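Please, structure for the following, as tokens.
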Amino acid sequence: MKVNKFSFEFEEYASIDELTEGEAELMRQAIEATENAYAPYSHFKVGAALRLSNGKTVLGNNQENVAYPSGLCAERVAFFHANAIYPDASIEVVAITAKTQDFQIDEPVTPCGSCRQVMSESESRQDKKIRILLMGQSGRVFAIHSVEDLLPFVFRAEGLKKKKFNLNRGSH
């Protein structure tokens, strides 16, 4: 047996005020996006804002459904929307935040596994790292350099490809 270790570095800012003006504005847009979230069941509203290489910003928020699996997270709403309307633009930065009326979220929220996989697909498709900014309702902001840091053993397209069996190898 061999024991391996995985680790990554990320930046931690005391608040949104320590971000660059462009990143702080993107986070403010993610905060605004939480206002339009449809979360009548969980009361957990998530907002995402993407800055694209063409200078456009795309927003997303979670959209719940009484049949829970039918809803979508803010990150997937934003990523799918960006790829649908700006297919040639790459995603440079995503800002993600959340709020709830039930308690104060002081720690940065992180994307769920499904969202990480979708974000990874976008990063792989554009062959360019996506910077990720994470925040709760207030407090610290984490900045992650790549989706690969959040999903180190990502399932990639190569996993779907079957190796061709060579029938001309002779019989055994």
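The radius of gyration is 19 Å. The longest strand covers residues 91-100.
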